[in-house]
Amino acid sequence: MQEMQEASPSSSKKISAAAARAHTRRNRATTSNSSIKGRLNSISAMFVPIAMALTVGALGWVYQSLKPPPPKICGSPGGPPITSPRVQLRDGRHLAYKEMGVAKEEAKHKLVIIHGFDNSKDINLPIQQELIDELGICFLQYDRAGYGESDPNPKRSVKSEALDIEELADQLELGSKFYVIGVSMGSYPVWSCLKYIPNRLAGAALIVPVINYKWRSLPQSLIRDDYRRRLVQLTYLFSSYAPGLLHWWVSQQWLPSNSVLERNPVFFNPHDIEILKKIPGFPMLSKAKLAEREVFDTLRHDFLVGFGDWEFDPTELENPFPSNTSNFHIWQGYEDRVVPFQLQRFISGKLPWIRYHEVPEGGHLIVHYNGLGEAVLKSLLVGEDPLTLDHVKP
Fold first, then answer.
1. Where are the compositionally biased (Low complexity) regions (predicted)?
2. Is 55 a residue whose pLDDT tops 80?
């Protein structure tokens, strides 16, 4: 027992020595690792800025290589000539326009026609001259900012569309009140008028109006699985953050031509395809046109505003017409494959003062169908709603 007790201190000392040696080795390893990490950190500190500079430089080179050529503004040196009358707005921009129908001084009704995406003031509405004369209609059709012979608006917004219309109407002396009709993408300027200049409106009509999937009121159950929503989101993403890449992509020669789009049953029903055989189609969406910077920029900016963040949700608007009367209309095709009728029904259901009209066999191009123009004008101007729209066809 005594020997065991005497051995204990010696054994304890040996263990402590071993532990000390192990601790020393660990300290050396830690010191060595710390030294390696320090050198690696120093190397990283040297090369990270270099790598970042190279990356930024590469991105800059890619952007410059993909950047479209300078725009050719209508009327500027090297740009297209001006052939239409124009007014100059307060900010210096010009809007081109044309007047049709009854002379403005003799007209009973003055209508501003607002064209859509890939269109202009030359949009052709199949309306019989006899009806125009009977109702005394003066049409004012204009090129929205950047389209046709109008100057682009670098500060384009939903609100600026309404202010352009108001200033144009004042300079051309349309009077204190006038009607507005918006077609497809030209619908968001009408919503803007309802929001920002409602006191100037005698009535309004939307024909196949686009739907902004960012509107807060739209229920997820209606838009969650909508493939059109995904297409809009993807296009919006590239238009916002990679416009040069998008421009390069859409102008590639190996991509299908716009004639393929015009025959695509994903977007157009059989009646629409018949219509596309009779009208110019979508000339601004051709590869040759999209290669022009001014065309590409106009379409991109219009798309970003129409499908971007608005200051309001249309379903929150109040009836702008007196005594709770209704003179606001939506005209929609039941077979529209660009804008689903379910969403139009939802919007009109949220605003009971909207008068909703649905063409049974109508697609997205119903504005070109025979009978639609007359139905829109009679409903808007004299309150004569058709009993049926079965007759509205190409």
1. 7-21
2. no
Strand, helix or coil for residue 362: coil
What are the angstrom distances between the C-alpha of 109 and each of 16, 99, 103, 125? 106, 13, 11, 17
Contacts of 297 (CB under 8 A, 6+ apart): 68, 71, 146, 152
Q: What token pair was written down for 345?
A: 């029904």
The 10s digit of each residue's pLDDT in 222-262 is 999 999 999 999 999 999 999 998 988 888 776 665 555 66
- For the beta sheet containing 109-114, the strands, ordered from the edge strand earlier in sequence to the opposite edge, are 86-88, 94-101, 137-142, 109-114, 178-183, 201-207, 328-333, 354-359
pLDDT digits (tens, 9 = 90+) for 62-91: 545 555 556 667 777 777 788 999 999 999
CATH assignment, 84-394 = 3.40.50.1820
What is the four-CA torsion angle of 283, 286, 291, 294, rounded to 10 degrees?
A: 20
Q: CA neighbours within 13 Å on the CB side: how many for 345?
A: 9
| Two structure tokens written together for 296 | 């590409």
Task: Residue 70: count other Cβ atoms within 10 Å of its Cβ.
Answer: 9
pLDDT tens for 112-150 read 999 999 899 999 889 999 999 999 999 999 999 999 999
Largest CA distance in the chain: 131
Q: Where are the alpha helices (DSSP H) in 67-157?
A: 129-135
Give the pair of three-digit tokens for residue 230: 């995904």
- CB neighbours of 98 closer than 8 A, spacing ≥ 6? 84, 85, 121, 122, 140, 141, 142
> What interhelical angle do 293-306 and 227-241 show, nearest 10?
120
Interatomic CA distance for residues 265 and 66, integer angstroms: 32
